[in-house]
């Protein structure tokens, strides 16, 4: 629909919201829907702006000791994998507005015959119905507190491990990049339903496209790379041993980070213009506390056309910039996010952190209060507000 026609509908929705004024929840949702629609019509850059100045530090982390991983060969020998395998007993759900995370989690839980729908899960993980980002951590919290099942959230996983999990009847959620139109990409969850080795294809339950969607291994891996190949693995306690055999000790953060550092470096050596590899390198270095090196990697990613919604979902860049005194960068980037979607509690939180450093405590307090208005369960904002 053309923008001018959408704008003509706004008075209608405003009138409708007046008619339902006694229904506070519905009235609030209509108002927020209008607000979100108006914001979506605003112009936006195609990419995250490049930094004003590029760090001159040499990319010394590219010449650290790197190895070609032999983990895949080891796993192939200890865990049998059939040529194809599919999970049955899945219930597909098409997502409602901004509800990809809850809908995908509901599909995964349906494998274990759990009755929760996306509506049930959304009430817990996204108190604001217009929330654009349900993080993996929020989905983890739901599974741990609302079900009897175990869940692992980790990154730097490969397709072999995903297929081994599926072969052992363990559903896997992957976090990917979805680009329905050029320069209009967004974060997206998909549930892996099966694989076919002969055709090098995976099958996914997708809340946009439908059930049993086939996708090439190359395409899925390319989209998955944007989130450093993040997975959410849900399983019963009796499958703990096989999950740990496949994924390794995911509690050993140091090992995970070392392997991620190695793999991102290898990918950059293959293609120095790989924007997601640079961003993943920055995230990995940030998580290891190497913020100076991380800012170099993040800056490089920004010069390579980082998609404009990228920082709606991933925030280590803000941690490293704050650690290195790049306060204005954090303020500018979070403000840019909030101009397009004003209910991103994470951007409100990080902008408040920048405002505190700028001695703008009243503005910071307001941003933190707004973050909690949109998500009352957002612990970082609660803690920062207490400090003020």
Fold and architecture overview:
The structure is a single chain. Helix 11 runs antiparallel to helix 12 and helix 12 packs across helix 13 (316-323). The chain is of the alpha+beta class and 388 residues long. The N and C termini lie far apart (45 Å). It has 17 helices and 7 strands. It folds into 3 domains: 3-40; 79-251, Alpha-Beta Complex (Cathepsin B, Chain A); 325-388, no CATH class. Strands 1, 2, 3, 4, 5, 6 and 7 form a 7-stranded antiparallel β-sheet that branches. A hairpin with a 7-residue loop joins strand 3 and strand 4.
State the main characteristics:
3 domains, disordered N terminus, 11% strand, Cathepsin B, Chain A, 17 helices, 388 residues
Structural category: alpha+beta
Question: What percent of residues adopt helix (DSSP H or I)?
Answer: 40-55%
Q: Characterize the main sheet.
A: 7 strands, antiparallel
Any idea how many domains?
3
Name of the CATH homologous superfamily of the largest domain: Cysteine proteinases
User: Strand-residue fraction?
Assistant: 5-15%
Count the helices. How many? 17
Q: Write the element-wise H/E pattern from the N-terminal end onward.
A: HHHEHHHEHEEEEHEHHHHHHHHH
| Contiguous runs where pLDDT drops below 50 for at least 5 residues | 1-8, 10-24
What Rg do the Cα atoms give?
A: 22 Å
Mean pLDDT over all positions: 87
Top-tier CATH class of the largest domain: Alpha Beta
